[in-house]
Amino acid sequence: DMKVTQMPRYLIKRMGENVLLECGQDMSHETMYWYRQDPGLGLQLIYISYDVDSNSEGDIPKGYRVSRKKREHFSLILDSAKTNQTSVYFCASSSPRTGGNTLYFGAGTRLSVL
Amino acid sequence: GDSVIQMQGQVTLSENDFLFINCTYSTTGYPTLFWYVQYSGEGPQLLLQVTTANNKGSSRGFEATYDKGTTSFHLQKTSVQEIDSAVYYCAMRDCNMGYKLTFGTGTSLLVDP
């Protein structure tokens, strides 16, 4: 079954706390992504990972970092979260073996930073 | 840099109405264009891919075309149904930029029964 799983689905944190968002996929996809979704802004790319320990900044990487130690897992870390990081975060994966054109998205994590 | 402009933020239609959503893109490379659909409570999923100018892609009754001359691409459906209510995103991948996908801001479609 082709699936991207995000945990947790909902998260409430206080400003200044650290946040860890986790993503897993069962398709052995090499490429994984973190996007955030905000009203009126659509989906913005935070980071892209081409494989284990091969990560590149996206369009809005400031305030975020990522970790990919296994091909099937990709984590997004917010050190000292800020209120403007309240958003819905989506993880996705794709594979160059299938052309790389189809992104498979998880169901998202809704993060509120108070 | 690459960009995708999606002007229609919200569209409300009645069942059996015609749907037309338009996006424009800007890139210095060779784009592959997509439409993704996001249903409530879910992540986006691929609806259509259009790789050749003036050729149509089609899926689930939706059709997509793009015009290289005007750097625009369109999604249309002849007769929408209530189940088509969702957010539709246009997106572009520039082959020179690896696997990065640039999304438009989304069009929220509400179909009244």
Counted by DSSP, the helix tally of chain A is: 0
Strand tally of chain B: 11
Task: Give the distance, in angstroms, between the N- and C-terminal Cα atoms of chain A.
Answer: 37 Å
Instruction: Give the helix/strand class of chain B.
Output: mainly beta
Helix content of chain A: under 10%
Describe the global form of chain B.
globular
The helix/strand order of chain B is EEEEEEEEEEE
The poorly predicted ranges of chain A are none
Largest sheet of chain A: 7 strands, mixed
| Multimerization status | heterodimer
Helix and strand element order of chain A: EEEEEEEEEEE
In round numbers, the mean pLDDT of chain B is 89
Discrete helix count of chain B: 0
Shape of chain A: globular
% residues in beta strands of chain B:
over 45%
User: For the residues shown, what is the average pLDDT of chain A?
Assistant: 94
Bin the helical content of chain B.
under 10%
| Computed CA radius of gyration of chain B, to the nearest angstrom | 14 Å
Largest interface: A-B, 26 and 23 residues
Please explain how this structure is put together.
The complex is a heterodimer of chains A (114) and B (113). Chain A is mostly beta strands. Chain A contains no helices and eleven strands. Chain A has strands at 4-7, 10-13, 19-25, 31-38, 42-51, 54-57, 65-70, 73-78, 87-94, 104-105, 109-113. In chain A, strand 5 (42-51) and strand 6 form a beta hairpin. The model of chain A has no long low-confidence stretch (mean pLDDT 94). In chain B, the strands form two sheets. In chain B, strands 2, 4, 5, 9, 10 and 11 form a six-stranded mixed sheet that branches. Helices cover 0% and strands 57% of the residues of chain B. Chain B starts with a strand and ends with a strand. Chain B is globular and about 45 Å long. Chain B has 113 residues and is an all-beta fold. Chain B contains no helices and eleven strands. The A-B interface holds A 4, 31, 33, 35, 40-45, 48, 50, 58, 90, 92, 94, 96, 100-108 and B 6, 9, 32, 34, 36, 41-46, 49, 89, 93, 98-106.
